[in-house]
Write a structure and sequence with these properties.
Elements: E1 3-10, H1 13-32, E2 36-40, H2 45-51, H3 57-64, E3 68-73, H4 88-98, E4 103-109, H5 122-125, E5 129-135, E6 147-150, E7 156-159, H6 166-181, E8 186-191, H7 197-209, E9 217-222, H8 223-232, E10 239-242, H9 244-255, E11 265-269, E12 275-279, H10 296-308, H11 313-328, H12 346-359
Parallel strand pairs: 1-2, 1-3, 3-12, 5-10, 8-9, 8-10
Antiparallel strand pairs: 4-5, 4-11, 6-7, 11-12
Helix pairs in contact: 1-10, 1-12, 6-7, 8-9, 10-11, 11-12
Protein backbone atom coordinates (compact mmCIF):
# COMPACT_ATOMS: atom_id res chain seq x y z
CA UNK A 1 0.00 0.00 0.00
CA UNK A 2 1.27 3.45 -0.90
CA UNK A 3 1.46 6.21 1.69
CA UNK A 4 -0.22 9.51 0.85
CA UNK A 5 1.83 12.49 2.00
CA UNK A 6 0.69 16.09 1.63
CA UNK A 7 3.54 18.56 1.16
CA UNK A 8 2.88 22.08 2.45
CA UNK A 9 5.90 24.24 1.56
CA UNK A 10 4.40 27.42 3.02
CA UNK A 11 6.27 30.71 3.02
CA UNK A 12 9.79 32.10 2.54
CA UNK A 13 12.35 29.36 3.35
CA UNK A 14 9.53 26.80 3.48
CA UNK A 15 9.79 25.90 -0.22
CA UNK A 16 13.61 25.77 0.04
CA UNK A 17 13.64 23.16 2.80
CA UNK A 18 10.61 21.16 1.62
CA UNK A 19 12.35 20.76 -1.74
CA UNK A 20 15.10 18.85 0.08
CA UNK A 21 12.50 16.69 1.83
CA UNK A 22 10.95 15.93 -1.55
CA UNK A 23 14.33 14.78 -2.87
CA UNK A 24 14.90 12.68 0.24
CA UNK A 25 11.52 10.96 -0.10
CA UNK A 26 12.19 10.22 -3.76
CA UNK A 27 15.55 8.73 -2.78
CA UNK A 28 13.82 6.51 -0.22
CA UNK A 29 11.36 5.44 -2.90
CA UNK A 30 13.95 4.79 -5.61
CA UNK A 31 16.68 3.18 -3.50
CA UNK A 32 14.88 1.69 -0.49
CA UNK A 33 11.43 0.75 -1.74
CA UNK A 34 9.31 3.32 0.08
CA UNK A 35 5.90 3.50 -1.56
CA UNK A 36 4.76 7.09 -1.30
CA UNK A 37 2.52 9.50 -3.22
CA UNK A 38 3.23 13.21 -2.81
CA UNK A 39 0.71 15.98 -3.31
CA UNK A 40 1.21 19.71 -2.81
CA UNK A 41 -1.09 22.37 -1.33
CA UNK A 42 -1.08 25.88 0.12
CA UNK A 43 -0.96 26.81 3.81
CA UNK A 44 -0.13 30.15 5.39
CA UNK A 45 0.66 33.38 3.55
CA UNK A 46 0.96 31.70 0.17
CA UNK A 47 -2.56 30.34 0.68
CA UNK A 48 -3.85 33.84 1.46
CA UNK A 49 -2.30 35.13 -1.75
CA UNK A 50 -3.49 32.23 -3.90
CA UNK A 51 -6.86 31.33 -2.38
CA UNK A 52 -7.82 34.12 0.02
CA UNK A 53 -7.55 32.09 3.25
CA UNK A 54 -4.56 30.77 5.27
CA UNK A 55 -6.16 27.28 5.43
CA UNK A 56 -8.27 26.88 2.27
CA UNK A 57 -10.93 24.23 1.83
CA UNK A 58 -8.86 22.68 -0.95
CA UNK A 59 -6.01 22.12 1.50
CA UNK A 60 -8.38 20.80 4.16
CA UNK A 61 -9.74 18.16 1.76
CA UNK A 62 -6.27 16.97 0.76
CA UNK A 63 -5.11 16.93 4.37
CA UNK A 64 -8.05 14.82 5.49
CA UNK A 65 -7.28 12.29 2.73
CA UNK A 66 -3.57 12.04 3.58
CA UNK A 67 -1.67 9.71 5.88
CA UNK A 68 0.72 12.47 6.92
CA UNK A 69 1.58 16.07 6.12
CA UNK A 70 4.97 17.82 5.92
CA UNK A 71 5.09 21.58 6.46
CA UNK A 72 7.93 23.99 5.73
CA UNK A 73 7.12 27.24 7.55
CA UNK A 74 4.46 29.94 7.53
CA UNK A 75 4.47 33.70 7.97
CA UNK A 76 6.34 36.81 6.95
CA UNK A 77 6.22 40.59 7.36
CA UNK A 78 4.22 41.10 4.16
CA UNK A 79 1.16 39.64 5.87
CA UNK A 80 1.49 41.44 9.22
CA UNK A 81 -0.98 44.18 8.34
CA UNK A 82 -3.86 42.03 7.01
CA UNK A 83 -6.91 41.04 9.06
CA UNK A 84 -6.01 38.88 12.04
CA UNK A 85 -8.16 35.93 10.94
CA UNK A 86 -6.32 35.79 7.60
CA UNK A 87 -2.77 35.94 8.91
CA UNK A 88 -0.58 32.95 8.01
CA UNK A 89 -0.29 31.70 11.58
CA UNK A 90 -4.06 31.32 11.77
CA UNK A 91 -3.76 28.69 9.06
CA UNK A 92 -1.41 26.67 11.25
CA UNK A 93 -3.76 26.88 14.22
CA UNK A 94 -6.70 26.00 11.99
CA UNK A 95 -5.17 22.84 10.52
CA UNK A 96 -4.23 21.61 14.00
CA UNK A 97 -7.76 22.19 15.26
CA UNK A 98 -9.53 20.82 12.17
CA UNK A 99 -7.56 17.57 12.17
CA UNK A 100 -7.42 17.10 15.93
CA UNK A 101 -3.62 17.29 16.07
CA UNK A 102 -3.44 17.60 19.85
CA UNK A 103 -0.10 15.94 20.70
CA UNK A 104 3.02 17.88 19.75
CA UNK A 105 6.24 15.88 20.04
CA UNK A 106 9.37 18.03 20.06
CA UNK A 107 12.61 16.10 20.54
CA UNK A 108 15.73 17.99 21.53
CA UNK A 109 18.67 15.71 20.84
CA UNK A 110 22.28 16.82 20.55
CA UNK A 111 24.25 15.08 17.83
CA UNK A 112 27.79 14.40 19.13
CA UNK A 113 29.43 16.47 16.38
CA UNK A 114 27.49 19.58 17.49
CA UNK A 115 28.45 19.57 21.17
CA UNK A 116 30.64 22.63 20.67
CA UNK A 117 27.86 24.49 18.80
CA UNK A 118 25.51 24.49 21.78
CA UNK A 119 24.92 27.66 23.76
CA UNK A 120 26.07 25.73 26.84
CA UNK A 121 29.37 24.02 27.64
CA UNK A 122 29.87 20.74 25.85
CA UNK A 123 30.10 18.79 29.11
CA UNK A 124 26.69 20.12 30.18
CA UNK A 125 24.88 19.07 26.99
CA UNK A 126 26.83 16.06 25.68
CA UNK A 127 24.39 13.18 25.33
CA UNK A 128 21.31 15.41 25.59
CA UNK A 129 18.09 13.63 24.57
CA UNK A 130 14.86 15.29 25.71
CA UNK A 131 11.32 14.89 24.40
CA UNK A 132 8.89 17.75 25.05
CA UNK A 133 5.24 16.75 24.71
CA UNK A 134 3.16 19.89 24.19
CA UNK A 135 -0.64 20.04 24.21
CA UNK A 136 -1.45 21.68 20.90
CA UNK A 137 -5.18 22.32 20.43
CA UNK A 138 -6.23 23.87 23.74
CA UNK A 139 -5.06 26.45 26.24
CA UNK A 140 -4.68 30.15 25.73
CA UNK A 141 -4.19 29.93 21.95
CA UNK A 142 -7.73 28.63 21.49
CA UNK A 143 -9.62 29.79 24.60
CA UNK A 144 -12.63 32.07 24.38
CA UNK A 145 -13.37 34.90 24.93
CA UNK A 146 -10.45 36.69 23.32
CA UNK A 147 -9.98 40.01 21.58
CA UNK A 148 -9.05 43.68 21.88
CA UNK A 149 -11.55 46.13 23.36
CA UNK A 150 -11.82 49.69 24.63
CA UNK A 151 -12.83 50.03 28.26
CA UNK A 152 -15.26 52.59 29.61
CA UNK A 153 -12.32 54.72 30.74
CA UNK A 154 -10.94 54.81 27.18
CA UNK A 155 -8.02 52.44 27.72
CA UNK A 156 -7.60 49.67 25.14
CA UNK A 157 -6.86 46.19 26.44
CA UNK A 158 -6.16 42.82 24.91
CA UNK A 159 -7.49 39.69 26.57
CA UNK A 160 -7.19 35.93 26.17
CA UNK A 161 -8.61 32.99 28.06
CA UNK A 162 -6.51 30.13 29.39
CA UNK A 163 -8.71 27.08 29.84
CA UNK A 164 -8.16 23.31 29.99
CA UNK A 165 -10.70 20.61 30.74
CA UNK A 166 -10.12 17.16 32.18
CA UNK A 167 -10.48 15.37 28.83
CA UNK A 168 -7.85 17.56 27.17
CA UNK A 169 -5.38 17.06 30.02
CA UNK A 170 -5.95 13.31 30.20
CA UNK A 171 -5.49 12.94 26.45
CA UNK A 172 -2.11 14.65 26.36
CA UNK A 173 -1.16 13.01 29.64
CA UNK A 174 -1.68 9.52 28.21
CA UNK A 175 0.47 10.45 25.19
CA UNK A 176 3.26 11.71 27.45
CA UNK A 177 3.18 8.75 29.86
CA UNK A 178 3.25 6.36 26.89
CA UNK A 179 6.24 8.17 25.41
CA UNK A 180 8.08 8.06 28.75
CA UNK A 181 7.32 4.33 28.99
CA UNK A 182 9.21 3.81 25.73
CA UNK A 183 12.20 5.90 26.86
CA UNK A 184 13.84 6.22 30.29
CA UNK A 185 10.63 6.12 32.35
CA UNK A 186 10.80 9.68 33.68
CA UNK A 187 8.10 12.29 33.08
CA UNK A 188 8.20 15.88 34.30
CA UNK A 189 4.89 17.75 34.14
CA UNK A 190 5.34 21.51 33.83
CA UNK A 191 2.67 23.96 35.02
CA UNK A 192 2.13 27.11 37.09
CA UNK A 193 -0.12 25.59 39.72
CA UNK A 194 0.91 28.11 42.38
CA UNK A 195 -0.79 30.90 40.41
CA UNK A 196 -3.17 29.48 37.78
CA UNK A 197 -6.32 27.46 38.46
CA UNK A 198 -6.00 25.79 35.06
CA UNK A 199 -2.60 24.52 36.22
CA UNK A 200 -4.05 23.30 39.51
CA UNK A 201 -6.38 21.05 37.53
CA UNK A 202 -3.52 20.08 35.19
CA UNK A 203 -1.37 18.90 38.11
CA UNK A 204 -4.27 17.07 39.76
CA UNK A 205 -5.12 15.16 36.56
CA UNK A 206 -1.48 14.27 35.81
CA UNK A 207 -1.05 12.97 39.35
CA UNK A 208 -4.18 10.82 39.06
CA UNK A 209 -3.04 9.44 35.67
CA UNK A 210 0.30 8.36 37.09
CA UNK A 211 -1.41 5.49 38.91
CA UNK A 212 -2.01 3.90 35.49
CA UNK A 213 1.71 4.04 34.64
CA UNK A 214 3.60 2.61 37.62
CA UNK A 215 6.69 2.12 35.43
CA UNK A 216 6.98 5.92 34.94
CA UNK A 217 8.32 8.24 37.61
CA UNK A 218 6.28 11.48 37.58
CA UNK A 219 7.63 14.80 38.84
CA UNK A 220 6.27 18.35 38.70
CA UNK A 221 7.94 21.71 38.08
CA UNK A 222 6.65 25.25 37.82
CA UNK A 223 7.36 26.60 34.36
CA UNK A 224 9.79 29.30 35.50
CA UNK A 225 11.87 26.72 37.38
CA UNK A 226 11.65 24.34 34.40
CA UNK A 227 13.14 27.02 32.13
CA UNK A 228 15.96 27.59 34.61
CA UNK A 229 16.63 23.85 34.95
CA UNK A 230 16.77 23.41 31.16
CA UNK A 231 19.71 25.81 31.14
CA UNK A 232 21.30 24.69 34.43
CA UNK A 233 21.16 20.91 34.01
CA UNK A 234 19.25 19.83 30.89
CA UNK A 235 20.24 16.16 30.99
CA UNK A 236 18.14 15.62 34.12
CA UNK A 237 15.07 15.50 31.85
CA UNK A 238 13.73 12.60 29.82
CA UNK A 239 10.18 13.57 28.82
CA UNK A 240 8.47 16.86 29.68
CA UNK A 241 4.72 17.43 29.25
CA UNK A 242 3.06 20.81 29.38
CA UNK A 243 0.37 23.05 27.94
CA UNK A 244 0.30 24.94 24.69
CA UNK A 245 1.88 28.23 25.72
CA UNK A 246 4.51 26.82 28.07
CA UNK A 247 5.42 24.13 25.53
CA UNK A 248 5.88 26.69 22.79
CA UNK A 249 8.39 28.60 24.91
CA UNK A 250 10.26 25.69 26.51
CA UNK A 251 10.75 23.82 23.25
CA UNK A 252 12.42 26.85 21.65
CA UNK A 253 14.62 27.18 24.73
CA UNK A 254 15.59 23.52 24.39
CA UNK A 255 16.34 24.08 20.71
CA UNK A 256 19.34 26.24 21.50
CA UNK A 257 20.84 23.49 23.63
CA UNK A 258 21.23 21.42 20.46
CA UNK A 259 23.33 23.95 18.58
CA UNK A 260 20.68 25.60 16.44
CA UNK A 261 16.92 25.86 16.16
CA UNK A 262 17.55 24.66 12.61
CA UNK A 263 18.16 21.16 14.01
CA UNK A 264 14.80 20.55 15.69
CA UNK A 265 12.00 18.52 14.07
CA UNK A 266 8.48 18.14 15.43
CA UNK A 267 5.31 16.09 15.05
CA UNK A 268 1.70 17.04 15.73
CA UNK A 269 -0.36 13.85 16.04
CA UNK A 270 -4.04 12.97 16.24
CA UNK A 271 -5.46 10.09 18.26
CA UNK A 272 -4.76 7.62 15.42
CA UNK A 273 -1.17 8.58 14.63
CA UNK A 274 -1.79 10.75 11.59
CA UNK A 275 0.42 13.79 11.86
CA UNK A 276 1.64 17.13 10.63
CA UNK A 277 5.44 17.27 10.65
CA UNK A 278 7.51 20.44 10.58
CA UNK A 279 10.77 22.00 11.73
CA UNK A 280 10.26 24.19 14.78
CA UNK A 281 12.05 27.19 13.28
CA UNK A 282 10.22 29.99 11.52
CA UNK A 283 10.08 31.16 7.93
CA UNK A 284 13.30 33.28 8.06
CA UNK A 285 12.35 35.89 5.45
CA UNK A 286 15.85 37.38 5.56
CA UNK A 287 17.39 34.29 3.93
CA UNK A 288 14.55 32.90 1.83
CA UNK A 289 15.47 31.90 -1.70
CA UNK A 290 19.20 32.35 -1.01
CA UNK A 291 20.20 28.68 -0.55
CA UNK A 292 21.19 29.44 3.05
CA UNK A 293 18.52 27.69 5.15
CA UNK A 294 19.40 24.61 7.20
CA UNK A 295 17.24 21.72 5.89
CA UNK A 296 18.22 19.23 8.60
CA UNK A 297 15.26 19.88 10.91
CA UNK A 298 12.97 19.25 7.95
CA UNK A 299 14.78 16.03 6.99
CA UNK A 300 14.59 14.90 10.62
CA UNK A 301 10.87 15.73 10.53
CA UNK A 302 10.64 13.30 7.60
CA UNK A 303 12.25 10.69 9.86
CA UNK A 304 9.61 11.37 12.52
CA UNK A 305 6.90 11.05 9.88
CA UNK A 306 8.28 7.71 8.74
CA UNK A 307 8.33 6.43 12.31
CA UNK A 308 5.08 7.78 13.77
CA UNK A 309 2.62 7.93 10.85
CA UNK A 310 3.93 5.65 8.10
CA UNK A 311 5.15 2.69 10.20
CA UNK A 312 8.55 2.82 8.46
CA UNK A 313 10.79 2.83 11.52
CA UNK A 314 13.75 1.20 9.78
CA UNK A 315 13.81 3.95 7.15
CA UNK A 316 13.51 6.59 9.88
CA UNK A 317 16.62 5.13 11.50
CA UNK A 318 18.45 5.32 8.18
CA UNK A 319 17.61 9.01 7.72
CA UNK A 320 18.75 9.86 11.25
CA UNK A 321 22.00 7.96 10.74
CA UNK A 322 22.57 9.85 7.49
CA UNK A 323 22.15 13.21 9.25
CA UNK A 324 24.51 12.13 12.02
CA UNK A 325 27.05 11.02 9.42
CA UNK A 326 27.13 14.32 7.52
CA UNK A 327 27.53 16.27 10.75
CA UNK A 328 30.38 13.98 11.79
CA UNK A 329 31.98 14.62 8.38
CA UNK A 330 31.99 18.35 9.15
CA UNK A 331 29.16 19.59 6.93
CA UNK A 332 27.69 22.81 8.34
CA UNK A 333 25.12 25.32 7.17
CA UNK A 334 25.58 28.95 8.22
CA UNK A 335 23.61 28.60 11.46
CA UNK A 336 25.93 25.80 12.62
CA UNK A 337 29.24 27.09 11.28
CA UNK A 338 31.97 28.16 13.68
CA UNK A 339 34.38 31.00 13.02
CA UNK A 340 36.63 29.98 10.15
CA UNK A 341 34.24 27.36 8.77
CA UNK A 342 33.00 27.61 5.19
CA UNK A 343 29.26 26.89 5.39
CA UNK A 344 27.39 24.95 2.72
CA UNK A 345 24.01 25.84 1.28
CA UNK A 346 20.61 24.21 1.58
CA UNK A 347 20.97 22.16 -1.59
CA UNK A 348 24.50 20.99 -0.77
CA UNK A 349 23.44 19.84 2.68
CA UNK A 350 20.54 17.95 1.11
CA UNK A 351 22.97 16.36 -1.35
CA UNK A 352 25.22 15.28 1.53
CA UNK A 353 22.39 13.63 3.47
CA UNK A 354 21.15 11.79 0.39
CA UNK A 355 24.70 10.59 -0.37
CA UNK A 356 25.09 9.35 3.21
CA UNK A 357 21.71 7.63 2.97
CA UNK A 358 22.64 5.88 -0.28
CA UNK A 359 25.96 4.81 1.23
CA UNK A 360 23.96 2.69 3.69
CA UNK A 361 22.60 0.67 0.76
CA UNK A 362 26.03 -0.27 -0.54
Amino acid sequence: MSHKVLMLPGDHIGPDIVAEADRLLHCLADDFGLRVELEYAHLGGCAVDAEGQPFPESTRALAQASDAMLLGAVGGPEWDAIERDKRPERGLLAIREALGLFANLRPAMLFPALAEASSLRADVVAGLDILIVRELTGGIYFGQPRGIRTRDDGLREGFNTLVYNTDEIERIGHAAFAAASRRQGQLCSVDKANVLESSELWREVMTDLSAQYPQVELSHLYVDNAAMQLVRSPKQFDVMVTGNLFGDILSDCAAMLTGSIGMLPSAALDANGRGLYEPVHGSAPDISGQDRANPLATLLSVAMMLRHSLAEGALADRVERAVEAVLAQGWRTADLAAVGDTPVGTRAMGDAVIAALRAQAD
